[in-house]
Amino acid sequence: PNSDYYFFILLANMDNFLLTAMAYYHFVANCHPLHYSSVMSLQIRILMLGSSWLISNFHSQLHTLLAAWLEFCASNRFPYFFCDPPPLLQLSCSNTQLNQLMILLVRGLIILIPFPGILVSYIHIVSAVLKAPSAWGKQKVFSTCGSYLTVAILFYETIIGAYMNPSSSHLADKDSLASVMYIVVTSMLNPLIY
What we know:
single chain; mainly alpha; about 80% helix; elongated
């Protein structure tokens, strides 16, 4: 494992936290528009960015250091276009139980803690929008939030499918497609929705 492995995990995590921050931004802008400038102050934005970077950096370093201890004595053919952790572990001839446990626990927390925050934000947004009398306002909010929700659902559906199932059910083609979806496709769609 090298810097590609580290940056792959770092950027996937940052995308995860970016989606969460955008959900919070949409929540504040739609449910508390008069308080937006005080709720989304510079200090809050710096705190959100800094904590996202620190957690993502720690997580990337954890997996990179754990992978550095692995021995690879089998074929070094890798059917993926980047170093995705689960398939990399399949190439190792050493014990990977600790690595697999960390993937399940730490990634589970990093993926599944922000996801309910996104859901709760959008439940509040939909509730507030449905109470609004203006059809134009409803359409504007749903069109803005709809594109974001499409990217968020695509990201979380593929990442949960790729990492929250037993390693015995991993298929190279399916996992490679899921990795492309949550790393490449969602990242390419981000500028369109933000």
